[in-house]
Automatic annotation (TrEMBL):
InterPro entries: CB, DNA_brk_join_enz, Integrase-like_cat_sf, Integrase_catalytic, Integrase_recombinase_N, Integrase_SAM-like_N, Tyrosine_recombinase_XerCD. Residues 119-316 form the Tyr recombinase domain. Residues 7-98 form the Core-binding (CB) domain. SUPFAM superfamilies: DNA breaking-rejoining enzymes (SSF56349). This is Site-specific recombinase XerD. It comes from Micromonospora echinaurantiaca. PROSITE patterns: CB, TYR_RECOMBINASE. Signal peptide: none annotated. Residues 110-129 are annotated as: Disordered. Keywords: DNA integration, DNA recombination, DNA-binding. CDD domains: DNA_BRE_C. Gene3D superfamilies: 1.10.150.130, Intergrase catalytic core.
Amino acid sequence: MHDKQDESVQHLIEEFLTARATRKPSPHTLEAYRRDLRTVAALAGELVTPPLPLDALPVAALTPRLMRAAFARYAAPRAAASVHRAWSTWNSFFSFLVADGVVGGNPMPAVDRPRAPLPRPKPLRGPDTPEQLLTAVARADARQRDPWPERDVAVLALALCAGLRLSELLALRVGSLAGRPGERRVDVAGKGGRPRVVPIEPELDGVLVDYLDSRARRFGARTVRPDAPLLVDRRGEPLRRGGLQYLVESCYRRAGIGDRVPPGARLHALRHTFATRLAEDGASAAEIMRLLGHASLASSQAYIEVTAGQQRDAVRANRTNRVLAGLVRGVAAR
């Protein structure tokens, strides 16, 4: 190792954040990295003898023993999710330092961390919201410069009826739609290199056929060759991440359902709605796992647990229960 081991943790944190900035994280994310790194490092500085401020604490001092002690202090007043996030940030920081030849190894595997809590599903709110959304978007909107309802409905339907992620939608080719009539499917390049096959019902198949027909009329039959991107913008160019996010956002506005979309789950709310309805209709966790391409059964189980909780809430809200409660109290008083 070279003399960078004597550099202060504070300086190296800023080097790490500068390197991370090339990935274009949001300012909020970058600030969260800085806060997690500086807070734990400050605790480590308090634990050495004599105590050292961040700008004088050498990275060589961050041994596994010191990091365990610092994280123990950090974890005491904080929720498990916060501790897990800080652990991940520090793990990335040390991986960066190892790759840069600053330190010889990453001490974080020696530091225990809480299990990351599974995120709760965030489907669209309201029992008929998906149907309202599709119905509204299927109508050409005169306020749009170049309305293309067939394409917009196809995007929403693939997320609502096949549960595709944003990256999976963008990766689809025209040839990803395969199979004979009645046995149609979509071949999905799933997250983490896990391909999967999702069956397509005749209704979704019809929506996709209408979209491809409208696209051929707009740009010519050559644009719907099997190797062509399935989703394109109004110029016929492949739809990109920002364009797809904007499209879905505009569909919510046109349908007037923006207040029924959970914060932070814009396009993902459609996938969560697909999974939640599967659970409501009796699908098992294993079936949901296969259809959504989850890496673990626990992620799929979350939809079933939420659905069970909603069913319990619905039963509890039944006004007849209040009548029964009154009758029980009356009987007990006699």
